[in-house]
Every structure is written in C-alpha cells, then in structure tokens.
Amino acid sequence: MEPAWIAPSILSADFARLGAEVDAVLEAGADVVHFDVMDNHYVPNLTIGPMVCEALRKHGVKAPIDVHLMVSPVDRIVPDFAAAGATYISFHPEATAHIDRTIALIREHGCRPGLVFNPATPLDYLDYTLEYLDLVLIMSVNPGFGGQQFIPTTLRKLSEARRRIEASGRSVRLEVDGGIKASNIRAVAQAGADTFVAGSAIFGSADYGRTIREMRQQISSAA
Ligand code: DX5
Ligand code: ZN
Q: Which of 141, 181, 188, when mutated, tests ligand 1's pocket best, judged by the most ligand atoms within 8 Å of its CB?
C-alpha cells in the first residue's frame, strides 16, 4: 500500500484568495491538491478549468495537482489540463464514449490516468482497465457539491477495489472523495483507501494544520 496522502479539495477554498489558500493547506501538511472540474452538464454545478490550474502552477504550486474531471465529453479538455500542469487526470466512465481511448490519451499527454466510480457504479469497469491506471477514485457522495454526507456502501466498495489493486501487483492509488472527515477517516483507511480527499472538513476548519494532523493520526491508528 502507498503512503497515505491527504488531498484537500479546493472546491471549499476561498476562491477570491485561491493561491494563498493552496499555499496554506500545503504548508499545513497536505500532499496533493484535489482540483474539481464541473461543467453544469455531467454534474449540476460549474467550477474551474485549465486556466485556474495553470494559474496555480504560475503562482508556484509544486505539489501534485489531482484533477477530477466531472465533465462530458472528456477528451477535448485532456490536452489543455496536461499543458496547464495537471499531474493526475481522473474521469468518470459514464462521461466518455471510449474509456480505453481516454485513458491512453491522458497517458500520451504525460499525465497519470485515474478512473472515478460514482456511488452506484459497479467496479466492473476495472476488469480491462486497471493495468493502465495509476489511480482509482471511489466517490463516497454523488458528484457535484462539497459538504455532503458520506455514503456507507463506499466502505465495501473500497475493500473490493483494494483487493483488485493488490491482485494486480501494480502500484495504483486508491482515493476516496466525499464527506471525509477526522471522524470517519479511520474506517475509510481500514477499508483500503490510501488517498483521502477532504474539502469542507479542511477548508471549513479554523486550523488547517490541526485538522490534517488529526486526520493523519486517525489513519495511522487504522494500520
Ligand atoms: C464532489 C467533489 C469533491 C468535494 C468533496 O463532487 O468531487 O471533491 O469537493 O467535498 P467534501 O469533502 O466537502 O465532501
Ligand atoms: Zn473531487
């Protein structure tokens, strides 16, 4: 299993001060920046695109940027995010016509591909894709908004995804996204996640460093 990564979702950051907010969470101990892209079509909300990713790189952000695409179509925007400095690019299988082609496209552009599973989407999409992926992202809420409640069936889905990753023998990150906080992160780690997205729990807290430390303590207590 990979070392645990905390991935604050900037969806809950103060967008008027985005550069400073990202600096602050990284200084507070975050490992990666989770970057939620919504198009008001695949999901009922609209957020940020490649220009903002590029602006963060120009601002000096060196940490991996974990781009979570909630857009349809997917392929058109992949090269733009690669040029804008994305590290990981993940997408939802329902949002693209040719999943294998989209994975290859992300890889060809020098980024690490991830596949995202909505709460009701079965893991079958991994049958013929896992060997090409660097990340599996399990949604623990329906995509579109921050601040929602964690959906409990996520735990058995994480265990099943962990089993598949171990069986593959490859190093693939298992990420969980939605409703994660210090009070449930231990259970999620026990189920097999190694990469933890948290938006409102971190950016809604008074002390980012303290919240991230609490999360790490809970994760280590799961080991
Ligand atoms: C939801 C996004 C999440 C969201 C998580 O569609 O993919 O990354 O920001 O927010 P919290 O941690 O508040 O549930
Ligand atoms: Zn996300």
A: 141
